[in-house]
Amino acid sequence: MIEDIENYDLIIVGNGICAQSILFEIRKSPRFNLDTLKIAHVFNDKLLSPCSENTTSVVSLSGVSKGVSPLGDLIYDSYDYTAQLARLELSDYFHSASQYHIFEDDTNSDQFNKRYDLPRKHQLLERDFLAHKDECLVVDNTSLLKYLEELNSSLNLNKIQDTLVHIDDSRVIHLASGKKISAKKVILGMGAYSNHFLPSIEHAHLSYSKKVPGDYVSFTNLDLGEECFVLTKGHYNLVYRSFSKEVLIGGTTLKNDLSATEFMPLDELYQYFSKFIDDIPKLMSGEIRKGLRHKGRKRMPFLGEISSGIYSFHGVYKNGFTFSFYMANQFIRDFEL
Hints:
alpha/beta; nine-stranded mixed beta sheet
C-alpha cells in the first residue's frame, strides 16, 4: 500500500514573528517563482501560542554599539535593518518612542555610565527623575502579526492548522491529526517549543537553548498623551502605547515554569512603576499575560541547518522583532530550493 503523503517545495512550521519573517522575505525575493512555489504553513496557535503575541514588544539598542561583541554587532545591525522597515513598509506597526533608563540610589553607577553615559534629570507625567534617554520603537505586535499573515497569504500557501508530532530524516512531518506531509526543505520557526518538538535531532545550539518564561500586566483605556514612551528599570519596563491607550508593566524572568504566575515579583514591579502614574488601576484589574522566550547560548540566536534539508530559526529571545527580519533577509539571500 502506498502511503498518502502530501508533497511540497517548502514547509514552514510555526506562526510567530520568525516564521512570518521568513515568508515575508520569500515573498519579496526575486529568486523564487512564486506562481509555482508550493508552500505548506503548519501551526496551531490555540495549543502553542507564539511568544510574539505575548510580549511588551519594545525595539531598542539599549546602549549597544558595534565592535564590542558578535551579539552586540547582531543587535545593532538587526535594529538598523528593522528601523528601515519601520520607516517604510511597516511604518503602521512600529511607533517611535522615548525610552528612559532610570537611575536611582541602588543603581550601579559604573555599569550604568559605561553603557548609557551619565544620567540627566527628566520630567514625565509631572514626575522628575534621573535617567538616560534613548529613542526606541514600540511595536504593535498583534496588528503586525495580523498584517504579515495577510500579506504572506498572497503566496501559494496551504495553511494547515495542526501540530507537529515528529519529523524524520527524510523530511516527512507527522501531524497530530495523522496527516503526513513532506518537502524538499523544511524551516522550523517554533521558538521556545523547539527543544520539546525536536527530541530526535541533535544539534549544539538546540542543546544549549532553553525556555525562559515571563509575565506582564496590561491596563487599557489609560490616556497618558499622544506619544509612546518606555520607562526601564534594569530588565523591566513600563510601556505606554499611545496608539491603543494601553500600559504594560513587566518583562519579568520567572523562576518557575509557565504553569503559574509569580505575583510577588509582578506586584513589586507594579508598585514601583505605578508611582509614575496617577490613578492607575489596581494590579488585579489588569490582564496578566504569560509567555515563553527562547534563549540560546550567550544569548545568540540561530537560523541554519540542523539536519539534512531541515532548518531551524530559534533563540531570538528579547530581540525577536529585530533579529527575525534581519536574519530572515540574510538567510533567504542564499537559500536554495
